Amino acid sequence: MSDAGLAVIGVTACNQELGLHPFNIVGEKYLLAIADATKGWPLVIPALGHCPSELILPRLDGILFTGSPSNIEPHHFQGEASEADTHHDPKRDATTLPLLKAAIEAGIPVLAICRGFQEMNVVYGGSLHQKLHQVGGFIEHREDKSTAVEVQYGISHEVQIEPGGLLHDAWGRSSAEVNSVHTQGVDRLGVGLRPEAYAPDGLVEAFSIKEAKNFALGVQWHPEWKVLNNAFYTSIFNAFSDACERRAKRRVR
Ligand SMILES: N[C@@H](CCC(=O)NCCCC(=O)O)C(=O)O
């Protein structure tokens, strides 16, 4: 395929200070997953605190909402104020929350990962446990930060996959193994979200949007991590890619 036929896939950025200056950054693994595991090319969407969705959505064939060490500010889900040292990125919240809703309503294929998955839940009126490990009854969902990154993003637990959903269609089996690199998790599920996978402790780990006009899947784990080495992760990106490619063929350029 010539480059002209590639799908253009937006990838959401985060804010971070580097030295004396504020930067917009995206983990390279998200960009590589788009470049290597889809028939698309990544285009970074900056987290400037707003996003002209009417300008950019007609130009995009899909959007990947990335994970991030930062947590969504709890006022977005009527949660209790977080502890003083909590890492937030209000400009990312102000960019991605409205953009996610607008993208889904416009029928843009969406894959939302980890923080992105939590954003999808919040956009649809859901809420989050801010510290899953303090709730009780959940397995450990955090990475061990004292270990090498390969260990942190290595397989952590199984998920049970609901029949008849996007994930089951993509993978064709009722269970899979996933990594786990998160402190927060779904408390109240958003309205109109269809659970697609559960952790062994019952935590919702994937969902889709019942009334979405196009592919709209959120996953709590990180399928972008070494995506081509993991058949399950690859199947998720393949399904997302197919949806983006279909839109790319229809979209007037
Ligand atoms: N901060 C949230 C979301 C966790 C998350 O997205 N982790 C990713 C870390 C960096 C990366 O791999 O991009 C939580 O802790 O639940």
TrEMBL record:
Cellular component aspect of the GO annotation: cytosol
InterPro entries associated with the record: Class_I_gatase-like, Peptidase_C26, PuuD-like
PROSITE patterns: GATASE_TYPE_1 (PS51273)
Any single GO BP term: polyamine catabolic process
Catalytic activity field: 4-(gamma-L-glutamylamino)butanoate + H2O = 4-aminobutanoate + L-glutamate
Enzyme class at the top of the EC tree: hydrolase
A GO molecular-function descriptor: gamma-glutamyl-gamma-aminobutyrate hydrolase activity
Pfam family, one: Peptidase_C26
Top-level taxonomic group: Bacteria
Pathway terms, separated by semicolons: Amine and polyamine degradation; putrescine degradation; 4-aminobutanoate from putrescine: step 4/4
EC number: 3.5.1.94
Family: Belongs to the peptidase C26 family.
Protein role: Involved in the breakdown of putrescine via hydrolysis of the gamma-glutamyl linkage of gamma-glutamyl-gamma-aminobutyrate.
Protein name stated in the entry: gamma-glutamyl-gamma-aminobutyrate hydrolase
Organism field: Shewanella sediminis (strain HAW-EB3)
